[in-house]
Amino acid sequence: MPELSKSTSLVDGNAGRSSRGFSFSSRMRLGGRGTFKAILERGTRRWAGQIGMCIAENKVGYPRIGISIGRPVGNAAKRNRIKRLLREAFRHAQHDWPGGYDVIFLVRPHELMSAQIYAQTLLTLKHQCLLKRHPTPPDTISPSAL
Fold first, then answer.
1. pTM of the prediction?
2. Are strands 101-107 and 51-57 parallel, antiparallel or unpaired?
3. What is the pLDDT of residues 12-52, one digit of tens each?
4. Rounded distance between C-alpha atoms, residue 14 and residue 84, angstroms
5. Sheet hosting strand 51-57, strand order edge to edge
6. Contacts 24+ apart (CB under 8 A), 28-32
7. 52 near 104, Cβ under 8 Å?
């Protein structure tokens, strides 16, 4: 039997069987209009094309995500596909995220992209949001970086 890689879970039918250490439990999901509203009010927002991110600190010690995607993006099948791809990209990169943040992905209408493009977009947005929230103090910048 051929060995399956971690990145093929959506394609090979193993979507329900996550690899050890890359699980995405329900406690990592944000839910409720009030929760989303509070994060959107106090969080830092950044956009990369048609995908946006709002990030705010939480007190639970691990990252939690929510996805805001409206009807103008497409029919239910397209919206659900985008949500699955975003969750999958986050699941594979969750260990690279600092603990203690709530993240809401904001989606505007666009053509469906590959999982790798969504993953790269999330990585870019993460760096932009965290850089804005915690900029490097001037005294820690090395002269060679200038």
1. 0.74
2. antiparallel
3. 334 444 445 667 667 788 888 888 999 999 999 999 999 99
4. 13
5. 44-48, 51-57, 101-107, 64-69
6. 28/62, 28/63, 28/64, 28/65, 28/94, 29/64, 29/65, 29/66, 30/64, 30/65, 30/66, 30/102, 30/104, 31/66
7. no
Q: From 32, 31, 102, 92, select the one nearest 65 (Cα to Cα).
A: 102
Which CATH number is 26-134's, of 3.30.230.10, 1.10.220.30, 3.40.1190.10, 3.40.50.720?
3.30.230.10
What b/e readout covers 79-108, taking b as 16+ CB neighbours within 10 angstroms? Answer: beebbebbbbbbbbebeebeeebbbbbbbe
